[in-house]
Amino acid sequence: MRADGRQPDELRRIHITPHYLKHAEGSVLIEVGDTKVICTASIEDRVPPFMRGEGKGWITAEYSMLPRATEQRNIRESSKGKVTGRTMEIQRLIGRALRAVVDLKALGEKTVWIDCDVIQADGGTRTASITGAYVAMVLAFQKLMDIGKLNTMPVHDYLAATSVGVVEHTGVVLDLNYIEDSQAQVDMNVVMTGKGQFVEVQGTGEEATFTREQMNSLLEMAEHGIGQLVAYQKDVLGDVAAKIQG
Amino acid sequence: MRADGRQPDELRRIHITPHYLKHAEGSVLIEVGDTKVICTASIEDRVPPFMRGEGKGWITAEYSMLPRATEQRNIRESSKGKVTGRTMEIQRLIGRALRAVVDLKALGEKTVWIDCDVIQADGGTRTASITGAYVAMVLAFQKLMDIGKLNTMPVHDYLAATSVGVVEHTGVVLDLNYIEDSQAQVDMNVVMTGKGQFVEVQGTGEEATFTREQMNSLLEMAEHGIGQLVAYQKDVLGDVAAKIQG
Amino acid sequence: MRADGRQPDELRRIHITPHYLKHAEGSVLIEVGDTKVICTASIEDRVPPFMRGEGKGWITAEYSMLPRATEQRNIRESSKGKVTGRTMEIQRLIGRALRAVVDLKALGEKTVWIDCDVIQADGGTRTASITGAYVAMVLAFQKLMDIGKLNTMPVHDYLAATSVGVVEHTGVVLDLNYIEDSQAQVDMNVVMTGKGQFVEVQGTGEEATFTREQMNSLLEMAEHGIGQLVAYQKDVLGDVAAKIQG
Amino acid sequence: MRADGRQPDELRRIHITPHYLKHAEGSVLIEVGDTKVICTASIEDRVPPFMRGEGKGWITAEYSMLPRATEQRNIRESSKGKVTGRTMEIQRLIGRALRAVVDLKALGEKTVWIDCDVIQADGGTRTASITGAYVAMVLAFQKLMDIGKLNTMPVHDYLAATSVGVVEHTGVVLDLNYIEDSQAQVDMNVVMTGKGQFVEVQGTGEEATFTREQMNSLLEMAEHGIGQLVAYQKDVLGDVAAKIQG
Amino acid sequence: MRADGRQPDELRRIHITPHYLKHAEGSVLIEVGDTKVICTASIEDRVPPFMRGEGKGWITAEYSMLPRATEQRNIRESSKGKVTGRTMEIQRLIGRALRAVVDLKALGEKTVWIDCDVIQADGGTRTASITGAYVAMVLAFQKLMDIGKLNTMPVHDYLAATSVGVVEHTGVVLDLNYIEDSQAQVDMNVVMTGKGQFVEVQGTGEEATFTREQMNSLLEMAEHGIGQLVAYQKDVLGDVAAKIQG
Amino acid sequence: MRADGRQPDELRRIHITPHYLKHAEGSVLIEVGDTKVICTASIEDRVPPFMRGEGKGWITAEYSMLPRATEQRNIRESSKGKVTGRTMEIQRLIGRALRAVVDLKALGEKTVWIDCDVIQADGGTRTASITGAYVAMVLAFQKLMDIGKLNTMPVHDYLAATSVGVVEHTGVVLDLNYIEDSQAQVDMNVVMTGKGQFVEVQGTGEEATFTREQMNSLLEMAEHGIGQLVAYQKDVLGDVAAKIQG
What we know:
6 copies of one chain form a homohexamer.
Chain A: E1 14-18, E2 26-32, E3 35-44, E4 58-65, H1 77-80, H2 85-99, H3 104-107, E5 111-120, H4 125-146, E6 159-167, E7 171-174, H5 178-183, E8 184-193, E9 198-205, H6 212-237
Parallel strand pairs in A: 4-5
Antiparallel strand pairs in A: 1-2, 2-3, 3-5, 6-7, 6-8, 8-9
Helix pairs in contact in A: 2-4, 4-6
C-alpha cells in the first residue's frame, strides 16, 4: 500500500478546467492530485527565422514554477538571470512531445507557444504539463478553426504523459507524488499517444540501476495509466474530440 | 458613464480567496474585475546580510506576469535574462508599501518574501498586488503565531491600494481597467492605510500635465475607494482582523 | 533651522553651465548645492522600431553615477552586469517628464537621448537631472534649428523638478540634501511645468505614513521652489527662452 | 547496408588514448569513428556547500564542443554568455550516469569534475563522452590511490553508453553517425553497467512515434554494443581493471 | 606640420585640477588638449580574498566613458550588460602601471580603487588616465598619512604615460589627438617612471608593420614627452612631491 | 642555464600538425614544448554588418582554454557567463596580428574566424596561437583556391610570435615556459613578419620596470626566435609557401 492509500497502478485524481484564462487562444488548469499547472497555448502567425518559407509550423514550450509552488520557496529564474538545466530539459521535452502528434504542414507557418506554469507542485509536474498542454493546444486550434484561420484540426492523435518508478519497499508504482519521487530508485517519464505508441521514454537510475524486467514492468504500468488519461482528455474535449484525426 | 457601466467612483468587483496554495505560510488569490493575482507570503528565519544583528525584520517583494496574462503574449523575464524596469518599480513599491504598516522590530530577524504573480491582467495589477499581498502577509503572521514562532501580530494598520486617473471624455475615475488605463492622460496609484493616511502617491501625466484641482479630486476618489477595500479585507480576515494593532 | 542654515522653503544655490561638453548637441553641468550632474542631449535621426512610420519623435533617458560620486564608493553597474531598480526608476522618470513638455509630432522621427551622469552626489540627483536635462535638450533643439534640421522649437513649456520632504524635528522642507534625505519620514519628488501644472508627483512614506494636510504643504512648497528654478532656467537660456512655445 | 558499410549491429571503430593530458588527475582522448572527445577527471578536496558534512563525495560534469568540431562553425557558449539547453541536458546526463557506479561514501568529501570537450563531432558525442569519462575517472581514482589519498577504488561496476535508433530504409541500427542521426525517426541513448543493468534510457521519437516491439529491438541492440565497449574499456584499463569492485 | 599646428614632438596643453571631487580620498580632473578625464582614488581597508594574510596591498582600476564623451554617442556598458574588450584592456593596463611604482608591502592590506571616467574624448584617454590617476593616488595616500592611517608615502617613483605613433604624411609624432590616432599606421602607448625606466610599451601596427628604426624613434619621442609630463606632475603635487621615495 | 636545460636564446621544440580536424577549412595542432593549441580557420561568405559593401574581408579570432589545460582546473567562461579580460586581450591581439599580413581587399567580402583552443598550457599560449593560426589560415585560403572560391593567396608575408622576458637570476630569455613566465620581472610578447618587421610589441614590467638597454636585448632575442619559427612554418606549408606574396 502507498502512503496516500493508492494501489500501485492507481493514478491520482485528475481534473482539467478548460478555458481557464480569457486572453489565450487555448488554456486549461490541470490538477493531478495536489499538482496544479496552468497551461496556455498562444498562436502567432509566423515561424522562427530558421523555418521561414518551408510552409510548416512550429511548437515550442516554456515551463516555470511560481516561487512558492514548492515546500521551500525557490528563487525565480528571472532573478537569477538564467534558466536552469532542469527547466530547459522540461521545456524541450514538452515541445518535442507535442510536435510528435501534430501535422506541422497542416498547421502552416504558425508558431504555437505553450506555457506551463506550475502554481502548486506535488510531483509529476512535467507529465501533468504535457497532458494539460495537449488539451490547451487542441482548444487553441479549435478556436482558430472557429474564426476561419485554420481549415482542419492538425492533430493526428491524443497525447498524455505520466511517471512510473521503483520506490523502496513499495516496488513499481504509477504516477508518483513528491514524497514517492524523492524516494525512488528509478524514475521514468513516459509520453504516449492515444493509439498506444511511445513518443518519449526517459528512465533514470538515481544513483542506482535497473534490470530489463523492471523496465518491462514500468512500461506496462505507464501504458495502463496513459490509457486512462487519454480517456479523460476525450471527455474534457467533448465535441472537439471528434476532430482529432486518426 | 464608463465602458463597463460603472459610475466614475465605483470599484470593480473584488474577491479574495484566502489560503489559496498549500505550501506558502500565507496565500491568496485576489480578483479585481478580470485582474487575477496569486499573492503568497513566505517567511524565512533570517534577514539579508546588510541587516544582520539589528534585531529587525525585512519585507521584500517580487512581481511577475504569466506570459499569457495579457492580450498579447509577453516574453518571460527569465528568457530575457533580466527583469524589466517596470517590474522593478512595481516590486520595490509593493515591498515599501507593506513595510509602512509592519513593526519590523516586533517581527524580529525574519524576512517576509512576498510573491505576486499575475495570472490574468486587466489593469491595476500593481494595486491589486498590494491589496492581496497585505492579506497574504497577515495570514502568514497568523500562522506563525499559531505555531508559536511569533508572539504578537506585528501589523499596526490595514493597507490597500487602488488607481485613479483622468480619462479622456470620462474625467476622473476610480479603479481603471486596462482600456481606461491605456487612454488615461493622468494615472495615479495611491496606497493608504486603514486610518486614511497616505503611504505612497504616484501620479504621472502621460505626455500630459494635471492641475492642483485635478490632483485633489484624484486623491479624494482614491480615499473613497481604499476605504471600501479595507472594509472588504476586514471581512476576509475575520477573526484575525481583531489582532491588527492600532 | 536646517543643518546647513537654510530656511525650510529655501533652495540650495543652483548653477547651470551651458555647452559644457563639445561633442553633444546639447549639454550642461548642473550644480544644486554639492550635487553635480552632467546632462547631455544627443539627437539621432530615427526612432525605435516600435515607433517607426508614426511621424513622431521619442525621448529616452539614461542615468548613472560615477563610482565615487558618493561618500562610499559604489560598484559600477557595468561591472555588476545589470542596471539596478533604482537607476531604472530614475531613467524612466526623466524620460517621461521631458516627454510631457515636448511636441513629439513637431520633433518628427528623431530620438533624443538624454544622459545624466552624476559626478558628485549630495541628495536630489534625480530632480537636478530633470532640471538640467531640460536645458540640455532645449540647447540641442536650438542647435538643430541653427543648422536647419528643425523648423520650430518643439517645446511647449518649461520643466523643472525638486524634492520636498518631512524631516524629523525640522518638519516640511524644500530641496533636501543627502543628510536630510536620509532622515526624512516622507520624501516627495515633484516635476512641474513653467505654467505651474504637475507632470509627476511621487510621494513615499519611508516606513511611515503622511496625512492629507502634509501632502498639501509639500505640494505648495514644491510649487514655490519650482517657480524659482524655472526663472533661473530662463536666465540661462537667454534668447533661446523666447522660442519656448506656450 | 549502412552508408559507411557497417552491419546494423556493428559499432564504429573505437580507440581510447589514456593519460592524454599532463595536468589532469585522469584524462583520455576517446575516438568513436570520427567523433573525438577529450575527457578529463579533476579531483577537488571538497564538496559543494549543499553536501558538506555528509561524508559523501560528488561527481559533476561539463560538456562543450570546439566551435569547429562541426561541419558548420557553431558560436561559443562563452560568447553567447549562456549554456544551451542541449549542453545542460548532456552534462546532467554524464554526471548522473557516473554517479550510478561510484560509491560516493567510499570517495569521501571530494568533488570529481568531469570535462568532456568534443574536438571533432560525427554523432554520438554524449555517449562517447560517458564511455571516455568513465575511463578518465577511474584513472584519476587510481592516481589518488597511488599517492595515498584514497584507500580503495570507489567504483563498483563498469559503465559505457551508446546510441541506437530507427533510421528510414535501414531500420534499427547501433551507434549512429551524424548522417544516420539526422535521418533517424527514433533516437535512443542507453547507458548500461558492466553487469548489464540499465542506468539511463532516453528514447525519443523525432516528430514520430515508436512501438513496444521497436523499443525491445533497440534495447537489445544497445545491450549488445555496450558489452563490446565494456570489454574494450577493460583492455585499456589493464591492471587497474582488477580493482573495480563488483 | 600637424593639423593643430603642433611640432611632431610637442605635447598638447595639459592641466590637472587636484581635489576635484569632495568624497574621494584623492581626485583630479586631467585635461590633455580636449581630452578630459576625472580620476579618483578610493582606499578600502581590505584586500581581495586571494591576497588576504599576505601583508600586501592591491591596486585595481576601472575605466569608462560617458556616452557622449565622443563624437557619436556610444552605448553604456551597463546597458549592454557587459564590459567591452577595449575597456578591459585599458583598466588592466592602468592598474598594472600604477602597481609598478607602489611599494605594496608599505601600503599594507588595503585596496586602492582607481576610477577613470572620460567625460570628453579626443585621443589618448588611456594615457591621460594613467597620468591623472597617478596624481589622484598620491593625493589619496597623502590624505591617509594626514589622518594617521599610513606612515610613509608608499610610492617610489613618478609615473606618466603618453602615446606616440606613425601618421601618414606626418611621420613620427607625440601625443596623438583623435584625428591623428585614426590615421596612424603605428600606434604606441608608453608608460615610464620619473627615472626614465619603462613600465609598459604597447606598439601596434594597424593593418601595417613597423621597422626597428621606427621603433627606436617612437621610444625616444615618448621618453621626451613623459619627461615633461612628470615635471608638470611635480608642480601640481607641490609639497607632497618631496615625499615620493627614490 | 635554464631549468629545462635550454640556452637563453633557445626556443622550445615546436611541432605543427596540419589538417588536424576534418571539418574546418584550415586547421593545425601546434605544440611548443608542452603547450598545445588547436587552431582552426573557418571562412564565412560575408562580413559583419559594419563592413558590408566595402569590398573587404575581415579576420576575427576567439581563444579559449580547456578547463584542465592548466595545473589547477579553471572555470569555463561559458559557466561564468562572460569572457575574462585576459581572454579578450588575447583574441583581439590574434585577430589584429593576422590582419597585418593579409590583403583584405584581395580576400573580398569574407570573414575568417580563427579559433585557438588551448588543450594543454605551459606558457606562451598566445604566441603559439598566433604562430599556429597563421598556418591554419593559409591552409584555409589554399583550400578556397583549390575549389575556385579565391583567385590568389591574399597573404603578403609570414607571421609568427614568441615571448621574451627578464627572469630573475637567469636574465633575458627566449620563449618562456610557465615557470619562467611566473617568475619574470619583464614579460614581452612580440609578433613579427617573415621580412623582420614588427606587428606588435607588448612589454610589461610585472611590478617592475625595465631599461632601454634591456628593451633592446629583448627585441633582438625575439627577432632571432621568430626567424626560426618562420623557417619552420615554411617547411610545414611546403608547396603552399611559394604562394605567399612578398
